[in-house]
Amino acid sequence: MKTTSLLILMLLLALPTLMFAQKSEYDALYLNNGSVLRGKVIESTPGKGVKIEIVGNNVLFIPENEIQKVVMREENPETINVSKESSKIEIFPQIHLFGGSDQSGGITTAVAYKFPFRLSAGVGTGVEWFNGAKLPVFASVNYKILPGTLSPFLYGQAGYAFSIETNQGDYNYYYGQNQENHGGFLAGIGAGLSKNISANTAITFSIGYRYQQVKITSEYNGYYDDDPNHVIKSDRTEKFNRIALSVGIKF
User: Fold this and answer.
1) What are the domain boundaries of the chain?
2) pTM (2 decimals)?
3) The domain defined by 2-21+85-250 carries CATH number 2.40.240.20
4) Which of 9-13, 62-66, 144-148 comes out lowest in average pLDDT?
C-alpha cells in the first residue's frame, strides 16, 4: 500500500510538468516579410499554403508564396533567450522509491551550484526510511552529458543519515531490548534523463543504487547470568542495498 501510494504521488508530480513541457515547443512559419508565426500546423497543402493555429485558438491560412520556410516543433524562442541569463544556483527536490527485499521511500532536496561545463555540485537533506525514519545529510554531484533541452545525466552522492526514531523500544530474541538506532554512512550512484521545460526548470527521472548503513545498540541479560541487573550491551551494523527510482524537478 505504501509503495502504491508513493508511485501515485510521483505520477501526480510529473504529470503537470510533462504537460507544460509540451508547450515549450511550437511549429513555426517564417514569412518572406520577416515575421514569424508560431503555433500548431494543422494542414499543409503543396502548391496552396499552410493552415496554422496560433495563440487564442485563431486559425490562419498562409499562401505558399508568402512562406520562406516551415519548422516543425521548434523550441520556444523565449526559452532560448532567457537561457543566457539562467541562474547559477539550482534547487533539486526529489521523490524516491527504494526497492529490494523490503521497499521504502524518501523525499530529499539539494541545493547545487551549476558550473559552465554541465556539472553541478551541492548539498542536500530530507527524510528517508531505512529501518525507521532517517535524516540524510549528503554532498552530491550531477553531470549532464549532452547540451540542449533533453539529455541523459549521471549522479553520485555520499553523506551520513541521522536517525529520527532513535529508540525502537521493542524486544528482539537475538539482540535483546532497548534497541537504539544511531544512523550511519550513505552513498548512491545512478543515471537518468533530464528534460528542460524552461531556462531554469527541468524535470528528471533516474534509476540508481543506494547504500545505507545503520548502527544499532541493544541491551540484554546473559542467558546463564543469575544477576538480573547485569546488563550486557551489544553493537551491530545493518547494511541496506537498494535500487533507487527517483523523479524530481530542478529550479
Assistant:
1) 2-21+85-250, 25-75
2) 0.60
3) no
4) 9-13
